[in-house]
């Protein structure tokens, strides 16, 4: 298992945890849900310590996700040491395209079948 695969697995796990933590949080303010009459029911069961924990864990997971994404760039296998473009190299040899033989086009009338015998 490569280093990039490990980073990729960690990124998926952290992203899933971040989605779960965000979905668990209670909405803080009047947003769209309070416009439709849901504003009074959002305060039921809200605990200040839980909100602080979820808020801190959201920022921690978001920062961890960003760091993992940036570090995974270092771990990508680039496949070789030569990263230069051959399009910019003046000494690079190119192959000519293969010339196909000319094939005469056959035109036939759709109403009459093609007859190759002379009359």
Automatic annotation (TrEMBL):
The chain crosses the membrane at residues 6-24, 58-76. Keywords: Cell membrane, Membrane, Protein transport, Translocation, Transmembrane, Transmembrane helix, Transport. Residues 98-119 are annotated as: Disordered. Its main location: membrane. It is found in: Cell membrane. It comes from the Bacteria. InterPro entries: SecG. PANTHER family: PROTEIN-EXPORT MEMBRANE PROTEIN SECG. Involved in protein export. Participates in an early event of protein translocation. This is Protein-export membrane protein SecG. It comes from Flaviramulus aquimarinus. The gene is secG.
